[in-house]
Amino acid sequence: IASRAGTLAGNPAQAQRYLDVATRVDVAGGGMVTWTFVIASCSSCRFAASRRSLSVRRRFLAGVRRLAVLAACVVATSACGRLGYDGHPSDGPGIVDSGDADGAASFAIVQIAAGGGIDVAVADLGHSCALRANGEVLCWGDNGTGQLGDGTRNDSAVPIVVQGLTDAVNIDAGDEHTCAVRSSGAAACWGRNFYGELGIGDVALMAYVPLPTALVGVTDANQIAAGGMHGCLRRDDRTAACWGRNLYGELGDGTTTAKTSPVAVIGLTDVLNLDATSWECLGVCEPPTGHSCAVSADGTIACWGRNSYGQLGNGSFAPDQASPGPVMGVLDAVEVATSGWTTCARHAGGTVSCWGNSVPTPTPVPGISDAVQVVVGQAHRCARHSGGTVSCWGYNNASQLGDGTILN
Fold first, then answer.
1. 8 and 40 Cβ atoms separated by less than 8 Å
2. C-alpha angle with apex 6: 32 to 29, nearest 5 degrees?
3. Which residue, 308, 300, 275, is CA-closest to 179?
4. Is residue 96 within 8 Å of 105, Cβ to Cβ?
5. What is the pLDDT of residues 213-268, one digit of tens each?
């Protein structure tokens, strides 16, 4: 570590622990840093011997920027570059190349977002994005609908800069689109627009939008949530608005009519944060779904939309709700995260509870008492702990739990 060179031996999980230590030691000193890592022996690795050596050279300011190791990007293979580096599939986290930055604080990554769903007609979908401190957004992976925002529909195996966006303060990635809030309070989305999920006011005219395009009538947003077929945002006055597909009432405006521009969510006046999800696939799979949830400043959570799996947390599996309703027994929430059939909440004390997937009321997740973030995938969940570690649980067919196995 001291010489900024090392030899890695063993399986990807062991290699990851070494990389994490080396990152913390080397970056703290600043200056031009070169890492040289060699995996000498790894019987389970799925890459050629010629790819077992990795050198990374970057300039850093002391204590400012770290080489990003993004565990959130291990869900899909790198066939379309969803891992963020021009490499091969891996069960362990990969190093995301954020470009030839000069190391200034403005290039630090301050937020990441991962999107994508499953469509048996289009193999697998997936893209990821990162927000820099200078307001730039980087995206990589699948780009079939323009969700990378570079003006094309060409996939990218490495992060590329979203065009025309230099003042982003918050981002989120949906199944096949991406959204961002600008420093001015305006919001922009890009990618697929089949259902009005971009909120730009016209579906038929622009089915694919490969560049950031302004949401209609939004000047005061501070958080945005991109679902699969709909989206929601929080305004400065702590109200919420949603747009897009509304098959199950997931827009929360009291109707099941789709909207191509944001409409107010009924009854929410003190929103702390929110999340939205909607998903469907072509072929033989689970039925479409879509719901949204918001945490209020008093610690309660309200959810609305599809409830076939109990994902609204009201103790039942029906009916769907076109306006917000309370989640049972939650009084101290600080964060909410949604997926197609599941919702999870992070509580003020650091615990996590989840509901849905045939459990209609919040149920504590055992062994978690210091969570500072919770995220929910279609069939797995992860929590980031106060010490910087991450725990994941659930389905693991594609090694999305990051434990080096495919065991659920």
1. yes
2. 30
3. 275
4. no
5. 999 999 999 999 998 899 999 999 999 999 999 999 999 999 999 999 999 999 99
